[in-house]
Amino acid sequence: MSTTTEKPSTRAPKLRWRVVDIVVLAVLAAACGVIFWAWSNLAYPLITSAAVAYPPASGLMVGGWLLAGTLGGLIIRKPGAALACELLAAIFQGLMGTHFGLTVVLSGLIQGVGAELIFAGVRYRRFGAWVATAAGALAGFFGTLSECFIYYYEWPADHQGVYVAFGTLSGAVIAGVLMWALTRGLRGTGVLSALASGR
């Protein structure tokens, strides 16, 4: 990971939502919803089959369902963007159809809150690699911890602990580092010029 950090702005960030922000949010959420659907219906069965000998290892794939929150926060840079993008992407996924049913909406809400808390904690002023990593990690922590209570309550405590640790790591890498790198790449192309992240 690059050690390059972004300095916080000396001016208060413009936090009011604009029409372009809403449009970009909708596009990002829809695109991420398709990725979530593919992750659930194509990747998940393969990985869970591979992890049948040690089920907590499936936590390593959790980051694929977290990327909308960090990506929305990094690109739009407005209060609520991370939460809204993760939640809307989960809604799109649910509407497209998945064996998880509409429980994905609850998961999207919980994971989105995790990512949003990090951006709120830096007052929407910092969007560097470490902030993105922390947002992905906390989303993964919240998501897998909630799943231990809802779905995996029969697992022994050590299995649950490993699952949460793997989910947190997966969130940090997939939803954090990779989405930060993607945002930097998009910024370099100029497609984000109308947004705060492109300036």
Description:
The chain is mainly alpha-helical. It has one domain: Arp2/3 complex 21 kDa subunit ARPC3 (Orthogonal Bundle). The protein has six helices and no strands. Helix 2 (67-76) crosses helix 3.
Give me the CATH architecture, please: Orthogonal Bundle
Q: Sum up the overall morphology in one term.
A: globular
Number of domains: 1
Task: Supply the helix-strand structural class.
Answer: mainly alpha
Helical residues, percent: 55-70%
**Whole-number mean pLDDT:** 90
Spans of at least 5 consecutive residues with low confidence: 1-5
Can you write the helix and strand succession as a string? HHHHHH
Number of strands: 0
Give me the secondary-structure topology.
Layout: H1 19-50, H2 67-76, H3 81-96, H4 103-121, H5 129-150, H6 157-189
Helix pairs in contact: 1-2, 1-3, 2-3, 2-4, 2-5, 2-6, 3-4, 4-5, 5-6
Key traits:
mainly alpha; 199 residues; 6 helices; Arp2/3 complex 21 kDa subunit ARPC3; transmembrane helix; globular; 66% helix
Condensed summary:
By secondary structure, the chain is mainly α. 66% of the residues lie in helices and 0% in strands. The chain crosses the membrane at residues 20-40, 46-68, 129-152, 164-182.
